[in-house]
């Protein structure tokens, strides 16, 4: 394929001009066109059994580089552009990032689609096409402000299939319009991401300069936003409308596929597997049963088939995320499901007389309970998480169905998280161990023998330095912030949540700030970087963002402290940003309260790019710790058993720590100090202070001292650059296990059984 000629021809046909005269935007659009054509001609992956990965989120990120890479034409395009004095990065700046996800859950779904196609397994993603995404985060007066994120442009990766599926709500009928995107694997074959939408949705109903809209008007608002505000009943009901819309259209489409293949619906489980990603798509179970019955199966047959078709992944033990809907919601939104859910509840009651495993309890429908009873598999997403599910959170279910429970430790696609975002490091690895690791990631282990080699250490440090400089340029352009590539880049990027403990990081930074004010001179300057969106209705999370932004300015204004310390909060943290931040990181902050972070996936991305983890023994950190050994990681904090016991006994009180430890008291009180209040909002800072001093539900204070000490140790270790580089290489070498290709191979062997 002559890429230069293809691009030339496109320039002429699209713009009637020579390629050399095209603007970056024109080049992006012509590359989009060429890539879409190449993908349109790629063969579909087929088989006599197919997976549908159904999910509320798919955080796919920009697609141009990734698609070029998987089509095998990345280098050619890069070279043509280089000949014109341009880079792919410049061109990709034009591409809007699809706003179809929130955090790790959605990004995992996207990594999985990449690996499913790469392993040539027939499997499509099924989701919704949110016009205005999650939201666009802006900082105003040092606070998060939410704005719509209109990511859809006239030309995009979306295709219109022209297909519609009727969805019957209790009070109205609508038509789900199916859009699609090609998902190309590394071997050049493709699956699809199938996204349902509603033509009557009207972006103009959103009030200007906000994300507020009339939540009652479902025909106009249904697919406007991902996770609409659920702080009131209409908002919660809107989420149920979205969920039923997704599963009803999805189940109809699946049955249509089955019929098109002339497969027998009575044996649908021989041909179809549906992976339910968290509880948002759980209603697919009763909906599939309903549709199978409409197609002539008896209730018993439909239930038996559905239980063999569906598999459920649990991504969290947080009660707030295990959805429960009042049955009157379902009565209103999808009344046709209620008789089936009642039947399922009755079957569940026959299987187990334990009231805790019932689906309907006090007129509330427990979605996860329905998933576990009527799926063939329930998996957690890291070893410790699955153990906690079995031993405590879902213990009653584990006793009932031990054979259903299994672990699938998460993974990440190395195509995006190494090859595309860190070509320098990829090239270096290839120069040492060849390119076999791109197909079999475990081959990265061969790097271990270079860890102690001073020449290699110099080389990885030089690459890290280059990525830090790239990040500095990126942040300057994107946000006008200047950072110092000579400093330690200490980074925490993830959804904002108290259990992830961004507030503990903040308190530790306050400590460093105060020490510097008191005369301490750090050996290395530190740049602490945060990136996080807070759910619009999660007040305390927004208070934490406010406190970070206030502290950031406070330190910047201080002549002495700013010489040694800078705090940056990246605005509108997204996949694009992550692709710049992660390769540039020295320290990966993974500091969740042990037992609470199911897995984490940024921890894997960071280690693969040579950052060293500073974290608790939680989620996949436990497996990282095991793989790299004590010498290549910084672990602190109480363990998960201790945390679980505190919750059981309800004996954790922050007041006890504050009474004993005057230093901790001082740090917490600093939140409402004159200095902070001078720049910040007293109500917001006061609320945060009050919460930490009286509740601290996710125990930031329990680990604060050990965290601060461990962080200092990490900074001290960094000063010995050879030793540090050795840790970097050891981390990269151990990262092979975390390829999503490995995760997907395990899902397939143990759950999906696709050929
Ligand atoms: C969640 C969990 C993470 C996990 C991810 C994917 C819900 O993501 O909390 O621990 O790695 O799913 O399984 P997040 O918090 O980033 O939204």
From TrEMBL:
Cited InterPro entries: Glycg_phsphrylas, Glyco_trans_35, Pyridoxal_P_attach_site
GO molecular function, a single term: pyridoxal phosphate binding
Reaction equation(s) it catalyzes: [(1->4)-alpha-D-glucosyl](n) + phosphate = [(1->4)-alpha-D-glucosyl](n-1) + alpha-D-glucose 1-phosphate
Entry's Gene Ontology cellular component terms: cytoplasm
Residues spanning the signal sequence: none
N6-(pyridoxal phosphate)lysine PTM positions: 605
EC category name: transferase
Key words of the record: Allosteric enzyme, Carbohydrate metabolism, Glycosyltransferase, Pyridoxal phosphate, Transferase
Cofactor requirements of the protein: pyridoxal 5'-phosphate
Family: Belongs to the glycogen phosphorylase family.
Name listed for the protein in its UniProt record: Alpha-1,4 glucan phosphorylase
Organism: Ileibacterium valens
């Amino acid at each position: 394929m002559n890429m230069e000629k293809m691009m030339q021809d496109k320039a002429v046909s699209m713009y009637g001009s020579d390629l050399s005269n095209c603007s970056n935007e024109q080049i992006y659009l012509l590359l989009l066109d060429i890539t879409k054509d190449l993908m349109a001609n790629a063969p579909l992956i087929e088989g006599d059994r197919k997976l549908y990965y159904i999910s509320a989120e798919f955080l796919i990120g920009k697609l141009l580089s990734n698609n070029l890479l998987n089509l095998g034409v990345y280098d050619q395009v890069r070279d043509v552009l280089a000949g014109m004095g341009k880079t792919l990065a410049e061109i990709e700046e034009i591409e809007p990032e699809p706003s179809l996800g929130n955090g790790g859950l959605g990004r995992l779904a996207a990594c999985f689609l990449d690996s499913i196609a790469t392993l040539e397994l027939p499997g499509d993603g099924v989701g919704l096409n949110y016009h205005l995404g999650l939201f666009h985060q802006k900082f105003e007066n040092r606070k998060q402000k939410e704005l719509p994120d209109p990511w859809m442009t006239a030309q995009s990766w979306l295709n219109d299939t022209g297909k519609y599926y009727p969805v019957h709500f209790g009070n109205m009928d609508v038509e789900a319009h199916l859009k699609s995107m090609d998902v190309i694997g590394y071997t050049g074959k493709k699956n699809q991401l199938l996204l349902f939408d509603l033509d009557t949705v009207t972006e103009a109903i959103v009030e200007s300069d906000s994300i507020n809209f009339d939540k009652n008007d479902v025909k106009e608002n249904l697919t406007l936003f991902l996770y609409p505000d659920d702080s009131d009943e209409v908002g919660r009901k809107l989420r149920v409308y979205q969920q039923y819309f997704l599963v009803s259209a999805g189940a109809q489409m699946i049955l249509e596929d089955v019929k098109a293949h002339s497969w027998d619906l009575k044996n649908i489980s021989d041909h179809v597997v549906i992976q339910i990603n968290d509880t948002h798509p759980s209603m697919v179970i009763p909906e599939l049963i309903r549709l199978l019955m409409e197609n002539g199966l008896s209730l018993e047959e439909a239930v038996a088939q559905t239980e063999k078709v569906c598999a459920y992944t649990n991504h969290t033990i947080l009660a707030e995320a295990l959805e429960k809907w009042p049955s009157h919601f379902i009565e209103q939104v999808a009344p046709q499901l209620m008789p089936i859910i009642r039947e399922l509840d009755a079957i569940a009651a026959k299987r187990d007389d334990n009231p805790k495993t019932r689906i309907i309890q006090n007129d509330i429908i427990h979605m996860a309970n329905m998933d576990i009873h009527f799926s063939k598999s329930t998996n957690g997403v890291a070893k410790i998480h699955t153990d906690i599910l079995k031993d405590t959170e879902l213990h009653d279910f584990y006793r009932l169905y031990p054979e259903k429970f299994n672990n699938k430790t998460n993974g990440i696609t190395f195509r995006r998280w190494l090859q595309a975002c860190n070509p320098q490091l990829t090239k270096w690895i290839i120069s040492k161990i060849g390119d076999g690791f791109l197909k079999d990631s475990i081959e990265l282990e061969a790097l271990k023998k270079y860890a102690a080699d001073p020449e290699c250490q110099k080389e990885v440090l030089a690459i890290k330095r280059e990525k830090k400089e790239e990040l500095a340029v990126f942040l300057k352009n994107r946000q006008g912030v200047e950072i110092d590539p000579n400093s330690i880049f200490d980074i925490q990027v993830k959804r904002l949540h108290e259990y992830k403990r961004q507030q503990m990081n903040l308190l530790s930074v306050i400590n460093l700030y105060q020490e510097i004010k008191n005369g301490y001179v750090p050996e290395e300057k530190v740049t602490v970087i945060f990136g996080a969106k807070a759910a619009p209705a999660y007040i305390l999370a927004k208070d934490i963002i406010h406190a970070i932004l206030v502290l950031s300015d406070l330190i910047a204004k201080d002549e002495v402290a700013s010489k040694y310390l800078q705090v940056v909060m990246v605005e509108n943290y997204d996949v694009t940003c992550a692709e710049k931040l992660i390769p540039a990181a020295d320290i990966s902050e993974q500091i969740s309260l042990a037992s609470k972070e199911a897995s984490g996936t940024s921890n894997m991305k960071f280690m693969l790019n040579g950052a060293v983890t500073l974290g608790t023994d939680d989620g996949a950190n436990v497996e990282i710790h095991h793989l790299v050994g004590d010498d290549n990681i910084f672990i602190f904090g109480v363990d998960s058993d201790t945390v679980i016991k505190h919750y059981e006994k309800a004996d954790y009180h922050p007041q006890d720590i504050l009474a004993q430890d005057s230093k901790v008291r001082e740090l917490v009180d600093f939140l409402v100090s004159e200095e902070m209040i001078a720049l910040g909002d007293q109500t917001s800072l006061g609320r945060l202070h009050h919460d930490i001093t009286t509740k601290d539900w996710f125990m930031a204070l329990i680990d604060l001292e050990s965290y601060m000490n461990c962080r200092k140790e990490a900074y001290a270790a960094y000063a010995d650059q050879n030793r540090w580089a050795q840790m970097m290489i050891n981390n990269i070498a151990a990262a092979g296990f975390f390829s999503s290709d490995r995760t997907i191979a395990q899902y397939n062997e143990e759950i999906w059984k696709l050929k």
